[in-house]
Design goal:
Oligomer: single chain
Order of helices and strands: EEEEEEEEEE
Largest sheet: 4 strands, antiparallel
Number of helices: 0
Radius of gyration: 15 Å
């Protein structure tokens, strides 16, 4: 099944989007961009009901994740444990977790001397590898 989503997602100031990742299990989209911009959008295409105008808004939840200061280089989902991992130009890696209906920081790793070019979670969703 394919779905085409035509909905504007607001970004702050002059941030430009350069990373996009989809979590198929939890129906979330992670968005990353310049100036440390990170946002999570939850999409519900099944149980959504039309509003008073008859339109259906599939975006049921959005949250800006504020921690990064520089351009986001990687944005990767851990589908099994509902975690999002991001890294920026300064080498800061953040693992975000969804708890009590909010996204919060689970771990921060500061590489300081280098930046991350790629991140992968193990198939079991337990181990994290970054290059």
């Amino acid at each position: 099944m394919y779905t085409c989503l035509f909905k504007k997602v607001t970004v702050h100031n002059s941030a430009k989007i350069n990373r996009l990742a989809c979590n198929r299990v939890n129906q979330c989209i992670g968005i990353g961009g310049s100036e440390g911009f990170v946002k999570v959008v939850k999409i519900d295409l099944v149980s959504n009901k039309p509003d008073q105008t008859g339109k259906v808004n599939p975006l049921t939840f959005t949250q800006n994740l504020v921690q990064h200061k520089k351009k986001i280089l990687t944005l990767v989902w851990n589908d099994l444990y509902e975690k999002l991992t991001t890294s920026d130009e300064e080498g800061i890696i953040i693992v975000w977790k969804f708890e009590n209906n909010l996204w919060s920081v689970e771990m921060v790793n500061n590489r300081e001397v280098s930046f991350v070019t790629d991140i992968k979670w193990s198939k079991q969703g337990v181990y994290l590898c970054f290059v």
